[in-house]
Specification:
The chain has 327 residues and is an all-alpha fold. It has two domains: 3-251, Fido-like domain (Fic-like fold, Orthogonal Bundle), CATH 1.10.3290.10; 258-324, Multidrug-efflux Transporter Regulator, Chain: A, Domain 2. 59% of the residues lie in helices and 1% in strands. It has 15 helices and two strands. The chain has helices at 7-16, 21-42, 49-58, 67-87, 96-107, 138-150, 157-171, 178-192, 205-216, 222-243, 248-251, 260-267, 271-279, 300-312, 317-324; strands at residues 258-259, 295-296. The protein has a two-stranded antiparallel ribbon with strand order 1-2. Helix 2 (21-42) packs across helix 4 (67-87) and helix 4 (67-87) packs parallel to helix 8 (178-192).
Length: 327
């Protein structure tokens, strides 16, 4: 993978530094919401981007959403704030202690018994054939991972951050929140390397999880690395456009929500089929119109295509549901 393809944009951004304080503040506030929303959405949190902003910026609760979903948002934002502090202290080593502290913040008041503690039981990724390390090996593997982090391997900063993310989710040291912890660790290392933080869009969820599974099953890392390069490149674009006076909100690729007819046209599936998949909980939804029509986020297109692929493998709807819900 050509990680050096990111260098030209990084150099352009460095040439514009230091950025104006008000611009930095605006970008940090926007990324605080975006990183929290996207990371939690990948794990099944149903707060929308706007609702996440309300929780973080106004401290308000959203009707119809669970306490856990609110805590996942506020905890992730607090963890991100701590990550930014660490990123600003490059002499502070990052290892097991910091990863455990990060995990504790993410699960605080959600699962205090497991927050900041390695798992003591076997775990499986739902719908996946990946075999994760035995819990007895986790402390040893994390010690080795910590040594690797502190050794600062001679690789491109973006590759280093992506490798750290991949290695941590593959050890899967915790009962829950492995993905969120790994993505925050990745962003800590990116920021220390002078890069803006990166995020995986919810519509990329299936591609993201499949690329991880492919690598963990001993095949190629190429799909995963391509997605990481794309995510980092996207954040560089957002910073560069903001430096030129363009709002971060306008910088993001945001497709309009789809009604079922539009989703049918984009996927080639019948409306009846899409309704059935929605009823079975296989397709993500994004609320309803005032008239009661179901709205679908852009990622529903990829989900529908993935469902059809899995059906061609003769999987039942229950098996597909587990496969699509892997985390």
């Amino acid at each position: 993978m050509n990680w050096h393809s990111l260098n030209p944009k990084k150099k352009r951004l460095d040439a514009l530094r230091p950025l104006k304080p008000e611009l930095v503040k605006n970008l940090e506030e926007w990324f605080r919401v975006e990183l929290t929303y996207t990371s939690n959405a990948i794990e099944g949190n149903t707060l929308t981007r706007q609702e996440t902003a309300v929780v973080l910026e106004k401290g308000l609760t959203v009707g119809g959403k669970t306490l856990k979903e609110h805590l996942e948002a506020s905890n992730h934002a607090k963890a991100l704030d701590w990550v930014k502090e660490l990123a600003a202290s490059p002499k502070h080593p990052v290892g097991e202690k910091e990863i455990l502290a990060l995990h504790e913040i993410i699960l605080r008041d959600i699962d205090d018994a497991n927050a900041g503690r390695y798992r003591s039981m076997p775990v499986r990724i739902a719908g996946s054939t990946v075999v994760l390390p035995n819990p007895r090996k986790v402390p040893e593997l994390m010690a080795e991972f910590s040594d690797w982090l502190k050794s600062h391997p001679s690789m491109h900063p973006a590759e280093f951050s992506a490798q750290a993310h991949y290695r941590l989710v593959s050890i899967h040291p915790f009962i829950d929140a492995n993905g969120r912890t790994a993505r925050l660790l990745m962003n800590l290392l990116l920021m220390r390397g002078g890069y803006p933080p990166a995020f995986i869009q919810p519509r990329e969820r299936v591609t993201y999880l499949n690329s991880l599974e492919k690598a963990q099953l001993g095949r190629s890392l190429v799909d995963y690395e391509k997605l990481m390069v794309k995510a980092i490149d996207r954040s560089l674009d957002i910073y560069l456009e903001a430096a030129r006076g363009k709002s971060p909100k306008a910088s993001t690729v945001a497709s309009k929500l789809l009604r079922i007819g539009g989703l049918s046209k984009k996927t080639g599936e019948t409306v009846a089929t899409l309704r059935h998949w929605t009823k079975e909980g296989l397709l993500p939804t994004a609320g309803h119109t005032d008239s009661g029509y179901t709205l679908y986020p852009p990622e529903a297109v990829d989900h529908a295509k993935r469902i059809r692929e899995l059906q061609s493998e003769r999987l039942s709807l229950g098996e597909i549901r587990k496969k699509m819900g892997q985390s």
